[in-house]
Design a protein that fits this description.
about 260 residues; cell division; Cyclin A, domain 1
Length: about 260
């Protein structure tokens, strides 16, 4: 479908979207949900490179409306794009994305399974830590195109297993029984879960190594130019107010 957008460009976009979510203190599920919208839209519609960041910003806007009680403000998204898009473009593309996805925005992502899996596994004392680590793994996987082929239940199972295996203290759930129990809960084969755990661990190691590189050794790809932006929350305009309805699909516009 795509004639200009390549997988490396998707990764740059995903990293930018992740940074926006971090700066705005969005809930963990917003970023994976937004990437789900991005991938579904790209699978149906040819997008120019110059429109990719606009698409990412719109998907963040929609995901924040679907998954949180405090959606992102249009002004904030315009700012984070370094004013390369306008509020009017965001509104127009919001309707375009909703139309192309047939208004089917209730996507199931891996984060939706995490709490249920932790409950079934009997993880108690360290549940918050395991949940946080699992959600981090899920978000990291969302930046890599190859993980889009994994089902949400498989990705959630592997992320929970990786989070449990990474803890160095005793848990109520024996580590050697985690994958077997997850297989029984999700009906995903243990071999698939184990392979996905290994893929996550490799991704973590690669990401950590890249993070450890000194700034002068990092090479910026020309494809990152469209996504360059300042992500300092100290400079975000103080006039941003996400409580004001600002798009056609804002929940505050609906009459109950």
């Amino acid at each position: 479908v795509q004639t200009e957008v390549l997988p490396p460009m998707r990764k740059v976009l995903a990293q930018w979207m992740s940074e926006v979510c971090e700066e705005q203190s969005c809930e963990d599920i917003v970023f994976p949900c937004a990437m789900n919208y991005v991938d579904r839209f790209l699978a149906r519609t040819d997008v120019k490179k110059s429109q990719l960041q606009l698409l990412g910003a719109v998907c963040l806007l929609i995901a924040s409306k679907m998954r949180t009680s405090r959606p992102l403000a249009l002004e904030a998204l315009v700012y984070y794009t370094d004013y390369s898009v306008t509020a009017e473009e965001l509104k127009a593309w919001e309707l375009l994305v909703l139309s192309k996805l047939h208004w089917d925005m209730a996507s199931v992502v891996a984060n939706d399974f995490v709490d249920h899996l932790l409950c079934c596994l009997g993880v108690s004392g360290d549940r918050d830590t395991v949940r946080r680590h699992a959600n981090t793994f899920i978000s990291l996987c969302a930046t890599e195109y190859r993980f889009t082929s994994y089902s949400p239940s498989l990705l959630a199972s592997a992320s929970v297993a990786a989070a449990i295996h990474g803890l160095n203290r005793p848990l109520s759930c024996p580590r050697n029984e985690v994958v077997t129990t997850l297989e029984q809960i999700t009906h995903v084969e243990a071999d698939q879960i184990t392979q996905c755990v290994q893929d996550i661990e490799v991704l973590m190691a690669t990401s950590f190594a890249a993070f450890q590189q000194p700034p002068h050794s990092k090479v910026n790809s020309p494809s990152t130019a469209y996504a360059s932006t300042k992500l300092s929350s100290n400079n975000v305009p103080s006039t941003l107010d996400s409580s004001q309805p600002n798009t056609p699909t804002d929940v505050q516009d609906v009459n109950f």
